[in-house]
Design goal:
- By secondary structure, the chain is mainly alpha-helical.
- The protein folds into 2 domains: 79 residues, Arc Repressor Mutant, subunit A; 153 residues, GntR ligand-binding domain-like (Four Helix Bundle (Hemerythrin (Met), subunit A)), CATH 1.20.120.
- It is built from 11 helices and 4 strands.
- The termini are far apart.
Length: 240
C-alpha cells in the first residue's frame, strides 16, 4: 500500500482515510437526517476538514457517499449543499411508497421462512426500543430495516432494491413525520408492525395487503396534514 499526499499537504494512508471518511459520513448523515443541517446548508470541504481535524480527501469521499444517498447536491458552481426537499413531488413519492408497502408485504405473506421471520422480529424489537427511547434517528433506521427485511422475505430482488431506495430517499420525510408527534410516536404504530408480522406469519395475503395500505395511509395523512398546517414553515426549511 502507498500513502498519498492530499491537496492540503497532509499524508493519508488508506486505513486512516477510510476510517476518516466513515466518521465524516456518519456524522453529517445523522445531522442531515436530524435537520440540524437544514436543506440548502453549504458543505464547504475546507471548513469540514478543519472541523473534523483531517485532510480534505476523506471529507470529499464522505460527501460523494452522501451524494449517492441523495442527501447532498453539488451545484454547477461546484459548491456542495444539503439536498433540498421537493415537497411538490410528494404525491408521486407517496404513490410509489404505498405500492411498495403493499407488494412487499403481500409477497412476504405468501412465503414460509423461519430464519427470515426471525430477522423481521429482531428489526421490530429494535424499532420498538427506538420508539420507547424517543430516538428519531434510530426509529428511521429501524423502520427501514424492518420493511427491507419484509421485502427480502418476499423474495423479489427488484422490489427489495426499489423499496430500499424509496425508504432511503424518504428519510427526511419520515423525520418530519416523527416530528409531528414531537418524536413521541404512539405505541399504536408499533402495534401496526406487529399486526403486519402476524398476517405474514398466518399467510394472510389479503390481510397483509390491507394492513400495508392502512400503514402507508396514516403516514401519508400525517405528512400531508403537517404540510397543509404549516406550509410556510415547510417551504422556509426547503429554501434555507
Amino acid at each position: 500500500m502507498t500513502d498519498t499526499t492530499t491537496d492540503d499537504g497532509n499524508v493519508d494512508t488508506p486505513r486512516s482515510r477510510g476510517s476518516g471518511t466513515q466518521t465524516v459520513y456518519n456524522t453529517l448523515r445523522q445531522e442531515i437526517l436530524a435537520m440540524s443541517l437544514p436543506p440548502g446548508s453549504p458543505l464547504d470541504e475546507v471548513r469540514l476538514s478543519e472541523r473534523f481535524g483531517m485532510s480534505r480527501t476523506p471529507v470529499r469521499e464522505a460527501l460523494l457517499r452522501l451524494s449517492s444517498d441523495g442527501l447532498v447536491t453539488t451545484l454547477p458552481n461546484r459548491n456542495t449543499i444539503v439536498a433540498t426537499i421537493d415537497f411538490a413531488s410528494l404525491p408521486t413519492y407517496f404513490d410509489a411508497l404505498t405500492l411498495m408497502y403493499r407488494v412487499t408485504t403481500r409477497a412476504a405473506a405468501g412465503k414460509r421462512n423461519p430464519a427470515a421471520m426471525a430477522v423481521i422480529r429482531q428489526r421490530q424489537t429494535e424499532f420498538e426500543a427506538a420508539v420507547r427511547a424517543q430516538d428519531a434517528y434510530a426509529m428511521i433506521e429501524a423502520n427501514r430495516e424492518f420493511h427491507v427485511a419484509i421485502a427480502e422475505l418476499g423474495g423479489n430482488g427488484y422490489y427489495t432494491t426499489f423499496f430500499a431506495r424509496l425508504l432511503d430517499e424518504g428519510r427526511r420525510i419520515l423525520r418530519l413525520y416523527y416530528s409531528t408527534f414531537d418524536d413521541r410516536l404512539p405505541l399504536q404504530y408499533v402495534r401496526e408492525h406487529e399486526d403486519m408480522i402476524a398476517a405474514i406469519e398466518a399467510g394472510d395475503v389479503e390481510g397483509a395487503d390491507r394492513l400495508a395500505i392502512d400503514h402507508a395511509a396514516q403516514i401519508v395523512r400525517q405528512i400531508q396534514e403537517y404540510v397543509a398546517r404549516d406550509m410556510n414553515n415547510a417551504l422556509a426549511i426547503d429554501k434555507l
